[in-house]
């Protein structure tokens, strides 16, 4: 018998991911009225899957959903159970990526048409895929994008709102088209905002600096983890605004995100960062982060939610 394909959680049920469907009128598709998360689970030496900072990801998802008046229809605790069941049903004995998306579905009877958020039904889907490390060991090269991050007064960039990712997509497309691996975006005031799907850090004179996550950027969960791990390692950290010049004169630059982990940047806009190789601080933080998410270090602070696959 052929192995069944991937299972998704879709509108309250566990279904075959390949044939799950949505109406063509789905509002989230038309207006970008959805919120999503990117979550990783790692296969531990024990054979269990450990989801990294699941509570924090679910909390951010629920906060974003509230902003868009989306009723996810489940508590954080219930969503944790759903994630566990989904991992068991998929039975992927490998590192896994989880992508929940909560979105506006369709107008309820008697509701006036329009882009309004009330009077529209809501839905939640979660897809799962196998995903290992995809960043090159030798580091990545970034373009400083000609696209700016939208101001928080235009779009709540602190939430992972699907429609907002048009900005990120255009920036990454511009960078890739020009032969770079990723884009670093400034905001409308010329301050370093984020990479396409990661927060930005610089290292200068042994100090690790990243812009504040005060509403003008996504408060990255990896960002928070790295600030905590740096403190554990006795590396001084600071949250301060940076501009394009700070990127060019940094000793090291690295990105942080659930997808990319800690990703050293070895070139910016055609110039080498430092000596053009991953620097010592980026490297130790990358290794410490990778060991932490795999439960191979003490001090994981309840960050791992483990599920047995059987
Ligand atoms: N900024 C943006 C715009 C992102 O999409 C992401 C990825 N979620 C991040 C930063 C990093 O956030 P996290 O570490 O929580 O994955």
How is this structure best summarized?
By secondary structure, this protein is an alpha+beta fold. Helices cover 25% and strands 29% of the residues. The chain has helices at 27-31, 54-67, 76-90, 165-177, 221-232, 244-248, 280-293, and strands at residues 7-10, 13-16, 34-36, 39-43, 49-52, 96-107, 120-130, 140-144, 182-186, 192-195, 199-204, 207-210, 237-239, 252-257, 261-268, 271-272, 304-307.
Explain what this protein looks like in three dimensions.
By secondary structure, the chain is α+β, with helices and mostly antiparallel strands. The protein has two domains: 7-130, Aminotransferase class 4, branched-chain amino acid transferase, N-terminal domain (D-amino Acid Aminotransferase, Chain A, domain 1), CATH 3.30.470.10; 140-293, D-amino Acid Aminotransferase, Chain A, domain 2 (Alpha-Beta Barrel). 25% of the residues lie in helices and 29% in strands. It contains seven helices and 17 strands. The protein has helices at 27-31, 54-67, 76-90, 165-177, 221-232, 244-248, 280-293, and strands at residues 7-10, 13-16, 34-36, 39-43, 49-52, 96-107, 120-130, 140-144, 182-186, 192-195, 199-204, 207-210, 237-239, 252-257, 261-268, 271-272, 304-307. The strands form two sheets. Strands 8, 9, 10, 11, 12, 13, 14, 15 and 16 form a nine-stranded mixed beta sheet that branches. Strands 1, 2, 3, 4, 5, 6, 7 and 17 form an eight-stranded antiparallel beta sheet that branches. β4 (39-43) and β5 form a beta hairpin. The protein is globular and about 60 Å long. The mean pLDDT is 96. Bound molecules: 4'-deoxy-4'-aminopyridoxal-5'-phosphate. Residues 38, 160, 168, 194, 197-199, 218, 220-223, 256-258 line the site of 4'-deoxy-4'-aminopyridoxal-5'-phosphate (PMP).
């Amino acid at each position: 018998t052929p192995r069944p394909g991937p299972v998704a959680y879709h509108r309250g049920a566990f279904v075959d991911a390949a044939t799950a469907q949505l109406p063509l009128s789905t509002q989230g598709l038309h207006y970008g009225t959805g919120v999503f998360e990117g979550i990783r689970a790692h296969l531990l030496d024990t054979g269990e899957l450990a989801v990294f900072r699941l509570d924090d990801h679910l909390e951010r998802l629920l906060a974003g959903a509230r902003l868009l008046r989306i009723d996810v229809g489940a508590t954080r605790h219930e969503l944790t159970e759903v994630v566990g069941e989904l991992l068991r049903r998929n039975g992927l004995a490998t590192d896994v990526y989880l992508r929940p998306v909560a979105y506006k579905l369709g107008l309820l009877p008697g509701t006036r048409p329009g882009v309004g958020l009330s009077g529209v039904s809501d839905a939640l889907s979660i897809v799962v895929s196998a995903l290992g490390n995809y960043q090159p060991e030798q580091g990545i090269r970034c373009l400083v994008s000609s696209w700016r991050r939208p101001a928080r007064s235009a779009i709540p960039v602190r939430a992972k709102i699907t429609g907002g990712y048009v900005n990120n997509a255009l920036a990454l497309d511009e960078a890739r088209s020009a032969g770079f691996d990723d884009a670093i975006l400034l905001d409308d005031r010329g301050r370093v905002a984020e990479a396409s799907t990661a927060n930005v850090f610089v290292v200068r004179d042994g100090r690790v600096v990243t812009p504040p996550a005060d509403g003008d950027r996504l408060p990255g969960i990896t960002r928070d983890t790295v600030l905590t791990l740096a403190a554990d390692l006795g590396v001084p950290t600071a949250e301060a605004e940076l501009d394009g010049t700070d990127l060019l004169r940094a000793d090291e630059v690295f990105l942080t995100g659930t997808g990319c982990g800690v990703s050293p940047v070895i070139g910016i806009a055609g110039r080498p960062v430092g000596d053009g190789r991953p620097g010592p601080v980026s490297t130790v933080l990358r290794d410490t982060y990778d060991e932490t998410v795999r439960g191979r270090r003490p001090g994981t602070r309840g960050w791992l939610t483990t599920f047995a696959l059987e």
